[in-house]
Specification:
38% helix, pyruvate-formate lyase- activating enzyme, 21% strand
């Protein structure tokens, strides 16, 4: 268990700087418009023949009826149901077009609906979309089907529709139960409706649950956030994510609606992080790393112990080896050596679909160096260690020679007991989990490209 004392909190300040979250490597700022929809089409065909792996599907439902000031997602704020219907028609067109390129023998091992708020769809729209998907794709019997839910406006009919489509995991954004904090970020969500959503899910047999919290929001104090943590422990979800608030008003202008003077300072944020780790681990959750916690019998914790944990654009995942095909505006696909992101705005996305082409806006073809570095970074993020011999055998390199400068950058982490570096492996110690992003950054060859403009949230 990580012991978060004042000495450790002071040490963490050394590493508090902007950095990627490594849901991919290379990260999205490297993607280029030189990678076109035509190249994407060719790569989809090639991959389907060369690597018929299981499928992971992601659907981006961008709609919300109100704006949350903290939000860093690609959203469309609307109450125009016709606009939503138009989008669903375009989404179905994209899904159907992709299905023509995918062998029907390839089963869907995982599907996730994110947003925005997928639960902003009405029950009929949920069933419409899920029925369409099952017309074109074969789902494995043990497929993980998950959805992000906003309890505000949710009804039992919504939950029944999700259950009918096969959802077996739900993720609820709570952020903070304190009403003052909720008002400061324009997301008032009474505790009662959060509990009601979970009760409805349990009634239908959906017992795999995630709760998302955010530390670093305006008006948060150690005392108020501790109350939130205690309530989450009482609710007892399978997984808890405690995200560091990504305050990036230069990228998300609506975050300027937050009064910056109300944000906790660096010391206060670190205390909130420490309280999160101590409260959740004391309650029996395993600290997966970075911002995720899971009960010992949860698939996420089991996968980490078995070194089968994976990381993608939805965060940590248990479905390693699946090709990710993503649908909807801003959605990012990843298979083989390809990353491809759809158009980020609704008009651009709809125009691409109307012109009968894939809505690819930017993408990237990985080099061998990218693949080597991705392997190391993902093993550190997921396994909390990397075996040098495994990398050497797989890529035919000398680890210490290839990563000479990276090993040099690890010096401070080793000196502080956060990393153990031996002849055969690099291991993240308990305290190193708190700076996992910083440790991974030592192996990132792309960061120098971004020094001139801020692109990433702070790491601690």
């Amino acid at each position: 268990m990580v012991q978060v004392d004042n000495d450790l909190l002071n040490t963490l300040k050394m590493f508090d700087r902007p950095g990627p979250r490594y849901t991919s490597y290379p990260t999205a700022p490297v993607f280029s418009s030189e990678y076109t929809d035509k190249r994407y089409e060719i790569d989809v065909i090639r991959n389907n023949h060369e690597n018929p792996a299981p499928l992971s599907l992601y659907l981006h439902i961008p709609f919300c009826d109100t704006l949350c000031y903290f939000c860093g997602c690609t959203t469309v704020i609307t109450r125009n149901r016709d606009q939503i219907s138009t989008y669903l028609t375009a989404l179905e067109t994209e899904i159907g077009r992709m299905a023509a390129y995918i062998d029907r023998d390839r089963q869907v091992a995982q599907m996730h609906w994110g947003g925005g708020s997928p639960s902003y769809l009405n029950p009929g729209e949920i069933l419409r979309l899920s029925t369409f998907l099952k017309k074109y794709y074969r789902f494995a019997e043990d497929a993980e089907i998950s959805v992000e839910i906003d309890p505000r406006g949710l009804t039992f009919e919504h939950m029944k529709a999700f259950h009918a489509m096969g959802v077996n995991r739900i993720s609820l954004g709570v952020q903070d139960f304190d009403e003052r904090v909720q008002r400061a970020v324009h997301r008032v969500q009474p505790e009662a409706i959060t509990r009601q959503a979970l009760d409805w899910a349990a009634t239908l047999g959906i017992t795999n649950t995630n709760i998302d919290l955010i530390y670093g929001l305006p008006l948060q104090t150690l005392e108020t956030f501790q109350r939130t943590l205690d309530k989450v422990v009482e609710i007892s979800p399978n997984r808890v994510a405690v995200f560091n608030f990504a305050y990036v008003p230069w990228m998300k202008p609506h975050q300027r609606l937050i009064h910056s003077e109300d944000l906790p300072d660096a010391d206060a944020k670190l205390q909130l992080l420490g309280a999160s780790i101590e409260t959740l681990t004391r309650a029996g959750y395993e600290y997966i790393g970075m911002d995720h916690f899971a009960k010992p019998d949860d698939e996420l914790a089991v996968a980490q112990r078995q070194k089968a944990l994976h990381r993608n654009f939805q965060g940590y995942s248990t479905k390693a080896g699946a090709d990710l095909y993503a649908f909807g505006m801003s959605a990012i696909s990843h298979f083989g050596d390809v990353y491809a992101q759809n158009a980020k705005t609704l008009p651009e996305y709809l125009a691409a679909i109307e012109s009968k082409r894939f809505p690819t806006a930017v993408g990237y073809k990985m080099t061998k160096d990218d693949q080597i570095r991705k392997f190391v970074i993902m093993r550190l993020m997921c396994d909390l260690e990397v075996e040098k011999s495994e990398v050497e055998d797989f890529f035919n390199i000398s680890f210490d020679e290839y990563f000479d400068s990276s090993i040099e950058q690890l010096f401070d982490f080793v000196r502080l007991g956060m990393v153990r570096h031996s002849l055969n492996r690099i291991v993240i110690e308990e305290s190193g989990r708190l700076v996992l992003r910083n440790i991974a950054m030592c192996f990132d060859a792309t960061l120098n490209r971004f020094r001139e403009k801020p692109l990433f949230s702070r790491t601690v």
